[in-house]
Amino acid sequence: MPSAPLTVRAATPADLPALDALYRSARAFMAASGNPTQWGTDRPTRAQLEGDIARGQLWLVCRDGVPHGAFALVPGQDPTYRVIDGAWQSDAPYLTIHRLAGDGICHGIFGAAVAFAAGRCPHLRIDTHADNRPMRNHIAGAGFVYCGIIRVEDGSPRLAYERLP
């Protein structure tokens, strides 16, 4: 029997317990696959998720109404992308995908998030930690091009990618 399609919907405050579980699972996977520092044991924080929800920027990827993934979709100039050791391909308006996570049960979360984002704006940016090999593979497979290194708020480096229409 084929699986039900994945759907994307806005997260609400009522989804915070499910989001906590999703991100806990994602942090465990990241640590087990050689990337224990990108999110550590507490990121994204509850306050960060609440802020994303309040701004209408946090989305859930669901199957049969059950959340299996989450991501933030942030419009406008990302402050951490202003300085890059490298070069962006375009200065045109873009959306940034941040805080993408899956529960490890359902496959296709990354593809659903990128398709949803591209449906809103075809110019996308994303970044990840150098040790996050699974995410780097997903990013390359979705047609993003490596542009250089940016630094996040705490000063640590991230590999930055862009996908043009």
Note the gap between the termini: 35 Å
Quick one: CATH superfamily? Gcn5-related N-acetyltransferase (GNAT)
The largest sheet has its strands arranged as 1-2-3-5-6-8-7-4
- Which regions have little confidence, pLDDT < 50, spanning 5+ residues? none
Shape: globular
Give the number of domains: 1
Work out the number of β strands.
8
Question: SSE order, as H and E?
Answer: EHHEEEEHEHEE
How large, in whole angstroms, is the Cα Rg?
15 Å
Biggest β-sheet strands, sense, barrel: 8 strands, mixed
The number of helical elements comes to 4
Short description:
The chain is α+β, with helices and mostly antiparallel strands and 165 residues long.
Search tags:
165 residues, 8 strands, Aminopeptidase, eight-stranded mixed beta sheet, globular, alpha+beta
Give structural notes:
The chain is of the alpha+beta class. It has a single domain (6-163), classed as Gcn5-related N-acetyltransferase (GNAT) (Aminopeptidase, 3-Layer(aba) Sandwich), CATH 3.40.630. Helices cover 28% and strands 30% of the residues. The chain has helices at residues 16-32, 46-54, 109-120, 133-141; strands at 6-10, 58-63, 66-75, 85-86, 95-102, 124-128, 145-151, 157-163. An eight-stranded mixed β-sheet has the order 1-2-3-5-6-8-7-4, with helices on both faces. Helix 3 links the parallel strand 5 and strand 6. The longest helix has 17 residues, at 16-32. It is globular. It starts with 5 loop residues before the first strand and ends with a strand. The mean pLDDT is 95.
